Amino acid sequence: MSEPLMKLHYTVDGTDFTVAGEASGAVKKVLKQLGISADVIRKVAIAMYECEINMVIHARGGVIDVEISPDKIRMIHKDVGPGIPDVEKAMTEGFSTASQQVRELGFGAGMGLPNMKKYTDEMNIDTELGVGTTVDMTVYIK
Amino acid sequence: MTVKDIAERLELTLKCGEDGVGREVSGGYVGDLLSLVMGKAQSGNAWVTIQTNINIVAVASLTDAAMIILAEGLSPDPNAAKRADMEGIPVYSSEKTAFELVCELKDLV
Fold it and tell me: N or C: which end of chain B has fewer CB within 10 A?
């Protein structure tokens, strides 16, 4: 297993929708500078943004660690939110527990986790009620 | 066709993000649920929506959309406009409905 070439760390503010997307935007810029293909960048950016938004909507924020290796990009999103009671249900397209206020902003379509799964090559959710959730995603650089 | 060309043909009003008006547009997407847009909009698209909050700029940036067109005479929120200027993503407004805009866009992109 290769050691990451670059490690990035971000804190997601759980109170402010207006800053959600800053981490994914920053990572997108770094990957662009590294000459990573547009297709890989798109996958990473979409998966990270969905996860950031989830952290704001459901978990009062959290932290993101990104590891960039020659062959893959790994994103570990960790929060201390309420946890996901039924992961299988949460993975179903269209299922959402987002509030009306959040829906009015254009979120809560129930596509967050399905999009993350769709755009990553590996995805693992470790969640415990009342303790928090860690979403660990990897996109391979082909 | 560039963003600017499309804006002229559709008689759109530029609200912010002027730095990006020279970009080529290819294809389009219409939608207001941001996660759907995230998954479906393609690089270079013209995106028609009625959402006006700052998150539209993040979605357009991450999907690499070329322009955002707000239907129904809507304008971007002030913080959305500020972010669009920073990112150079043109946001336009039109009095037309999303349906009317898409009908006109069909032959241009």
Answer: N
Nearest to B13 by CA among B72, B54, B83: B72
Q: Nearest CA of chain A to the CA of B46: how many Å?
A: 17
- CA B2 to chain A, closest CA, distance in angstroms equals 21
> How many distinct structural domains can be found in chain B?
1
CB B38 to CB A115 under 8 A? yes
Q: Does the beta carbon of B55 lie under 8 angstroms from any beta carbon of chain A?
A: yes
Test the B interface: residue of A111, A116, A118, A119 with most B CBs within 10 Å: A111
B51 vs A46: CB contact, 8 Å cut-off?
no
The pTM assigned to this predicted structure is 0.87
Token pair for B100:
């009317």
How many Å is the Cα radius of gyration of chain B? 12
The alpha carbon torsion through A84, A88, A93, A99 (nearest 10 deg) reads: -20
For the segment(s) A6-140, the CATH number from 3.30.565.10, 1.10.443.10, 3.40.50.300, 3.30.470.30 is 3.30.565.10
ipTM over 0.85: no
Domain ranges of chain A: 6-140
Domain that holds residue B23: 3-105
Tens place of pLDDT for every residue, chain A, 142 residues?
A: 568 889 999 999 988 777 778 899 999 999 999 999 999 999 999 999 999 999 999 999 999 999 999 999 999 999 999 999 999 999 999 999 998 888 888 898 899 999 999 999 999 999 999 999 999 999 999 8
